[in-house]
Specification:
The chain is elongated. It has a 22-stranded antiparallel β-barrel. The chain is 9% helix and 44% strand. It is mainly β. Helix 10 (682-690) packs across helix 12.
Length: 967
């Protein structure tokens, strides 16, 4: 595909402009604006901020919090709040619309299912399930996509139109908020004080490529009086697809590949014209042992010549393999719409009522290449397909014998038959998801001990209901009948031609064996909380603040695959029904002790702490503690230290999720093909033979293919625990605020997180490597092979592994100038430097550790760059506003193979015009993301499209235009 080029001079200019920009801002707002926290600080008000339930001065925040307001969201030009949050340097990605994982990969080994079409946020590389998502400080129902029971909130189920701002707590907070808050907390604050109408309409697409068209329409209204307020709104978002065939990087299975004959391999053996493998010793064994049809389509029985000199079959070569890469999506299409209502009635200071309701609907699609149909004892499906025999009476069987799978106790006469089912069309997975939440709140304040106390009581009900339709699957029982004795193929049965190559399977044959797979999942949340906060008495540093409360929560989840799939009769990813629930009762308390204030070198000294006890019906009881200290040696400098214990109970999917499969892109060290170690390393050869690889070296499967990993929940897993230390400081000089700046602050935080008993599987690449290199008995027991040496499955079922350890440094700089003759300027810079990310997993003797710092993990995709940063420069003068954003990602090395992924710098630009003659009620914004058209670095071990969608942008410039109007 033809790509645009950028001159070296332009690149140098971009880097120069962003020299200030190497780390960037999640807090990228227009220069003259301020956050609600800053407004409260200027007014001398105490407010509740994320990370504490005690009202306090927001400038004395005991925890690091990043704020993303609606202006910052608008500045990105993105139509998904998940995409916005995933740009924060402390974020490590998560599911988004760049993932095309469904039946072509199956269920990742995290217990949550595919999550096709959904979106999530992952802080600190700890996984989205260790980041707690709240809405107005309250729990939100988990998402689902009819492919499992995730333990995470689907951010696509939250109407963007209702968001006022997002507060991201970059520290553990289980003592305050309960389970899951290990990596941090994302608290979405909804609109409650809007006056009048606001409407926006945005359209964008990838320029030059003319795809990925995105439409986003939002309308909201707020009004009322001093006692009663009402806010409501609706939205519609539609995103069209980007196809892998339309990007150069994803034309083939591996980067830079031009043909399936390239030594790197990776193309599928389930070829369009078929692949037939015979067992050694078979009297019909042809020359080479692997054959395919000579000229497709072969619509009759055909002639088989064992010498392959003549007849209708010839030797199978790598040129016959199938390149499935261009048939995938690079960006998945989706359509979302819904709305919200937020009403509040204030009857008195002591009694107020709030009602909030949200509804969101999503239609999304994933797409994969034509179904790879593999049957026989070496197929590795784990179901009936592995036991199918092709009877001698099948009218298309040319071999004169029954191709016996060995399931009847007789010797197997064939190993595998693979066929790409092009006649059935591409596999498509269509999700339809509805999410409804209703929240009721009663709050107020009362007088106690001569001081103001506050209370709130909340009830949350949420339900997520998802349906998926998969077209392109086969019924294995019907296929066995159609390939079996012709005398038993009666009624609607039509004998099946698996040997004839592309075009030989007729519509009548397909009509008998094909079916539409229909699956469903649902999640339900009931959450009841009661909180009280206030002041007890005064210390020299100020009033002692306390907060305490109670929470009762009930969660239920279920996954119901198609009955044919539950019977084990599908030809795609297997699945079983799963259902589970739990309830939990929790109490907590929080204390703030301001010991000293306004003393030289002790302008503020404060201690704080919290404790929470949880009693889960599934995980038992647990108590977590947190404690911290604040010290202001001078008014302009705040230093803080914090220790927090965390707890995460296993999710429903992690406990009760049924066994399924994940087809992971992996290299097998035991192959004799190029890149394998069987022929060159005696130790590896001995260990591989002990694991079931034929000593003859006849196992020559090419590297880079997909290997089946068994996934599923485990009722025996126990809760995770974690310890977090945070040390940091904020410098906000008065000399600057009193001079050229209206705001200036620099914040630096060091974090150290240790997770024990992490609920996850031992990575498949670790098991393969330890088995082949070390002969580790635990690892080899997890690698299952067929008699021919093929890997039929790797056991990736969840367990409590050793743990995770991560350390790093966050830095944030925010500057806004005062109004000048040249307008106002803003600079927002933030970055994360990753010092360490290490996982420890059990082995036969003790544990082994893998340090992922500075690497690309590969499938399942995740990069761990040493440094990520972004910066935004704003300029606002009269009716014109400009913003330039730079995003930088450090280089990484692939954990498998050692390929280098070079660093990337992305540039985004936006211009906004607000005509003064319309009272600035109207705005027109034009923007381009990835201005310099940077492609992502090529990745060999990544799951799909040869890049990491958690970290990098889709190739191409994305241009957009947005109209906004308020009145």
């Amino acid at each position: 595909m033809k790509r645009s080029s950028v001159t070296t001079r332009a690149s140098i200019l971009a880097l120069a402009v962003s020299a200030l920009a190497l780390p960037i801002a999640a807090h990228a707002q227009a220069a003259p604006e301020e956050t609600p926290q800053e407004a409260a600080a200027e007014a001398g008000e105490d407010v509740v901020i994320t990370g504490s339930r005690i009202r306090r001065d927001p400038l004395d925040n005991p925890s690091p919090v990043t704020v993303v307001d609606d202006a910052a969201i608008a500045k990105t030009g993105l139509s998904s709040i998940a995409d916005v949050l995933q740009r924060i340097p402390a974020s490590s990605g998560g599911l988004n619309s760049k993932f095309n994982n469904s039946g072509n990969f199956g269920n990742p080994p995290d217990g949550g299912g595919v999550g096709a079409g959904s979106a999530a946020i992952d802080l600190r590389y700890l996984g989205a399930k260790r980041t707690l998502v709240l809405v107005d400080g309250l729990r939100y129902v988990n998402g689902a996509s009819a492919s499992g029971i995730p333990g995470t909130v689907d951010l696509n189920s939250i109407p963007d139109v209702m968001i006022d701002r997002i507060e991201v707590l970059q520290s553990a907070a289980s003592a305050l908020y309960g389970s899951d808050a290990i990596g941090g907390v994302v608290n979405i604050i909804t609109k409650s004080g809007q006056k009048g109408f606001r409407a926006t309409a945005q359209y964008g697409q990838y320029l030059g490529d003319n795809d990925g068209d995105t439409q986003n329409y939002q309308l909201s209204w707020g009004g009322g009086n001093d006692r009663v307020t009402l806010n409501l709104g609706g939205f519609y978002t539609k995103q069209d697809s980007v196809r892998a065939s339309d990007r150069e990087i994803s034309q083939f299975v591996n980067p830079g590949q031009t043909a399936c004959t390239d030594p790197i391999g990776g193309c599928s053996g389930a070829a369009v014209n078929g692949r037939i493998l015979f067992n050694p010793g078979n009297p019909s064994l042809p020359a080479g042992g692997v054959i395919t049809v000579r000229n497709a389509p072969l619509n009759g029985r055909g002639v088989y010549d064992p010498t392959l000199v003549g007849g209708d079959f010839r030797a199978f070569t790598n040129a016959d393999r199938f390149n499935f890469a261009p048939f995938n999506y690079f960006l998945t299409p989706n359509e979302r719409y819904g709305g919200f209502l937020n009403a509040r009635a204030e009857f008195s200071d002591a009694f107020n009522v709030r009602l909030k309701a949200t509804w969101a609907h999503r239609e999304s699609q994933n797409q994969a290449a034509f179904l790879p149909l593999n049957i026989g004892p070496d197929a590795g499906n784990g179901n009936l397909l592995d036991t199918i025999s092709v009877d001698v009476t099948n009218p298309f069987n040319p071999f004169g014998i029954t191709l016996n799978s060995g399931a009847n106790g007789q010797p197997a006469t064939y190993s595998l038959i693979g066929r790409r089912l092009v006649e059935a069309g591409q596999r498509t997975y269509n999700q339809s998801v509805d999410t409804l939440t209703v929240t009721g709140t009663i709050d107020g304040k009362f007088d106690l001990f001569g001081r103001n106390w506050y209370y709130d009581a909340n009830a949350v009900f949420g339900v997520n209901d998802a349906h998926q339709l998969f077209t392109g699957n086969l019924n294995a029982a019907r296929l066995a009948q159609a390939l079996g004795p012709v005398s038993q193929c009666t009624g609607a049965c039509v004998p099946f031609n698996i040997f004839g190559g592309q075009g030989s399977i007729t519509p009548a044959m397909l009509a008998f064996v094909a079916f539409d797979e229909k699956s469903r999942s649902s999640q339900e949340l009931q959450d009841y909380t009661f909180n009280v906060s206030g002041e007890l008495f005064d210390l020299p540093g100020g009033p002692v603040g306390v907060a305490f409360g109670y929470e009762h929560r009930y969660q239920q989840g279920s996954f119901t695959p198609d009955p044919i799939i539950q019977a084990g009769l599908g030809a795609d990813i297997p699945a079983q029904a799963a259902r589970g629930s739990f309830d939990v009762d929790e109490v907590y308390g929080e204390l703030r002790l301001p010991l000293i204030r306004d003393v030289p070198l002790l302008r503020l000294v404060e201690l704080n702490g919290a404790v929470r006890h949880s009693d889960f019906s599934t995980a038992g009881g647990n108590t977590t503690l947190s404690g911290g200290a604040l010290w202001k040696p001078v008014d302009d400098l705040l230093l803080r230290a914090q220790y927090a214990e965390s707890f995460r109970a296993p999710s429903i999917g992690e406990l009760f999720g049924a066994q399924s499969r994940f087809d992971q892109t992996l290299d097998d060290p035991c192959t004799s093909a190029a890149g394998g170690l069987f022929q060159s390393n005696a130790t590896v050869r001995a260990n591989c033979i002990a694991n079931g690889v034929p000593a003859s070296g006849s196992y020559v499967e090419p590297q880079g293919g997909q290997i089946s990993v068994l996934t599923g929940g485990n009722v025996n897993v126990k809760p995770e625990t974690a310890e977090t230390w945070v040390f940091g400081g904020v410098y906000s000089p008065a000399w600057a605020r009193g001079g050229f700046a209206s705001a200036l602050s620099l914040e630096v935080n060091y974090y150290d997180i240790k997770v024990d008993g992490a609920i996850q599987s031992i990575p498949a690449e670790v098991l393969l490597g330890r088995c082949a290199q070390d002969g580790d008995a635990l690892s080899c027991a997890a690698v299952q092979r067929t008699p021919a040496g093929f890997i039929s499955a790797i056991n990736g079922v969840l367990l409590n592994t050793g743990g995770i350890r991560t350390r790093g440094v966050d830095a944030t700089l925010n500057l806004r100038t005062r109004q000048t003759g040249a307008g106002t300027f803003g600079l927002s810079v933030s970055g994360n430097y990753l010092l360490k990310y290490e996982e420890t997993v059990p082995a036969t003797d003790g544990f082994t550790s893998t340090n992922y710092t500075g690497t690309e993990r590969g499938s399942p995709d995740q990069a761990y760059p040493h440094f990520k940063g972004q910066a935004t420069i704003d300029w606002d003068i009269g009716p014109v506003a400009m913003a330039f954003t730079g995003r930088y990602i450090d280089n990484v090395i692939e954990n498998q193979g050692g390929n280098a992924l070079d660093s990337r710098f992305y540039a985004d630009i936006q211009a906004t015009f607000r005509p003064s003659w319309m009272g600035e009620r109207f705005g027109l914004s034009l923007g381009v993301n990835n201005l310099f058209d940077k492609d992502p670095p090529a990745c060999f071990s990544c799951s799909l499209n040869n890049y990491d969608p958690t970290t990098y942008d889709i190739p191409g410039r994305f241009g957009y235009a947005r109209l906004s109007y308020g009145f």
